[in-house]
């Protein structure tokens, strides 16, 4: 709750710009703007976190989508941190519904990168090199985040469903679940796992994106532990007879508590808090004002 408040997640849009379908997620109205109910936001985050974790644990991928200026850096950074794909410049129509054509563009991007490395450019004129370089830069800008994506993602994480309306429509058509941050001017009905919150502040976007990335990291860790356990079981079966026949164990040998040792030396990955360096560059919504949060949420704690 403290991280959400510090990141400004509770600030909605002006009352006149609201979507009535968001009514159930709105706590109150203060000085002409809507205040989002953070109790429901926290529950929505838990549901979305679990959905992403299960999807990744099942062997599927996550596609991070955020093309607005405030979201571009956070989407790219967190997607790369958890090893998933992202779109942070422009959503090309048909990116999901016509993925076969998109894959041709990805192959073209890889071919241009290979040409630049293997010396093919040395046999071309400056004009040809400039044209190919321009084509490569354009493809990298739009498709660089999904360059290694070989099949459709298992789930989408979207910042600002109004701006990414085409992505939402394509995902629904292809039957791909959607996790999205929905502000007070958005429609939450078409979203499988809506997270009510501010989708314009950089710190709020960074917080949401880092939480989803942590869900991916946790799922990857679980898969890795399962593989290790399986290998351990196989080794145990093979060495069972030799262990039982080994009579050289000293009586003063002590049994080691493996669980305690793992817990002692392992470090838990903390959820990223909002970054302080984002604060000076933060783009706040027009005409937003500060609200006495303690006064608004004073009754919730009781």
In short:
The protein is an alpha/beta fold and 302 residues long. 47% of the residues lie in helices and 11% in strands. A hairpin with a 2-residue loop joins strand 2 (26-30) and strand 3 (33-36).
Task: Give a quick set of tags describing it.
302 residues, Helix Hairpins, 5-stranded parallel sheet, 3-stranded antiparallel sheet, 9 helices, globular
Protein described:
The protein is α/β, with parallel strands linked by helices. The protein is built from nine helices and eight strands. The strands form two sheets. The protein has a five-stranded parallel β-sheet, sandwiched between helices. Strands 1-3-2 form a three-stranded antiparallel β-sheet. The protein folds into two domains: 18-89 and 152-181 and 203-235 and 269-295, 3-Layer(aba) Sandwich (Rossmann fold), CATH 3.40.50; 97-151, Helix hairpin bin (Helix Hairpins, Orthogonal Bundle), CATH 1.10.287.610. The protein has helices spanning 2-6, 38-57, 69-82, 99-117, 126-143, 165-174, 202-245, 258-265, 293-296, and strands at residues 11-14, 26-30, 33-36, 62-65, 85-87, 155-159, 178-182, 193-196. 47% of the residues lie in helices and 11% in strands.
